[in-house]
Amino acid sequence: MSLQADLKRITDTRFCLSCGACSYICSPDKVAMVDIDHVGLRPQFSDGIAPALIREACAVCPTITSDYGQLKDRDDYVASVDKKTETNWGAITGIWEGYANDEELRFKGSSGGALTAIAQYCLEQLDYHAALHTGEDPDDPIRNKTRLSHTRDELLAAVGSRYSPASVCDGLGGVEAAPKPCVVIGKPVEIAATRNAMALRPALAEKVGVTLSFFCAETPPTKATRRLMAEHGVPEEGLETLRYRGYGWPGYFTTRNAGEAPRQHWIYQRAWAYLQGFRPWSAHLWPDGAGELADISCGDPWYEEPDGENPGFSLIVARTKLGKEIIEGAIAKGYLTATPAETWKLDKSQEGLLRKKGSVWGRRLAHRVMGMPNTRFKGLDLFTPWMALSPKEKLASTVGTLRRILKRGLWKRA
């Protein structure tokens, strides 16, 4: 590919998932992450950017290439699950279900505050410098802001899932410059990008102490949140806070405008059902909804229906020896209460993400038929989950995708 073609591939809105890794690798003054209201955050490259930087941006972009065999290929990897579970959910060294012992973290967190409690344990007990993550932008609550948190209170200020565009990897420069290792918390695609960046930049690899992720079907654009607010008559002017869930499990879409008390709107499941309809095409092409390249990933235990009484808990998945050691340490030090969980709970809790993973194989086939590019995945079996789909789902993922490509003109290069 020519450098111009490389640049177009990185910025192609059909594939980009706004991880921000290209901004980190090239520096934010050369690649700005710009919010396109109906698509999401996308990189804007400055004129005259050096060819070497474009090549590095290609190397870190997870939607160009991602290696999903790297954790299982490690010498110290010992699987705790059977091959079928490993194919469906990635490398696994242990599964627990549990919650943060800190009652405030548990209540305010999306599903029991486990991920935040693990990050807090790393900061306070393992002497990590900071945690890189995202949270509500206090100056513009519809949007998110990447930050480095150093304390429990800073973590708490950004607790809870955000269903609007984020680009955690644009903050990796702060991790690389840190005096000690850091926690990196991100969506599955952001962790894949972090792994690519670590392979390219040894100085970064030295400072990424542990990677944490969460089960995620990728984020809708800013337009989705605006529309959800409009559904409830919430004006953007004077908006002071906006949260999508938490404050109990699973929580409500909640807003607060200046001079008003917080207003609860739809329960999480209904709000997410509305928001996900706005997800861009790129979200439907990304198969990893489980944070398969993180050391630890957490997700909602949807095998149990929320009854309004449960304050929340998480399924906690270790994917590396380090991840397992950190979870066990957090339990031992009183940050987490957790017990081993059976694999069926993972399957039952995240059925939609597994169906999506299988569907991606069919969508990629449709791309090939139309002469469209695909992400190069190494060590990722998508065919087996596709074969587990119903005949109707298989047809939708192939013929249905072809129809959408033709109807939306997606075969045209952006």
Automatic annotation (TrEMBL):
A Pfam family assignment: FrhB_FdhB_N
What sequence ranges are listed for the domain 4Fe-4S ferredoxin-type? 7-36
- BP-aspect Gene Ontology terms: chlorophyll cycle
**Superkingdom per UniProt:** Bacteria
* GO molecular function ontology, one term from the record: 7-hydroxymethyl chlorophyll a reductase activity
Q: Which PANTHER family match?
A: 7-HYDROXYMETHYL CHLOROPHYLL A REDUCTASE, CHLOROPLASTIC (PTHR31332:SF0)
Can you say what this protein is called? Coenzyme F420 hydrogenase subunit beta
Native organism is Celeribacter neptunius
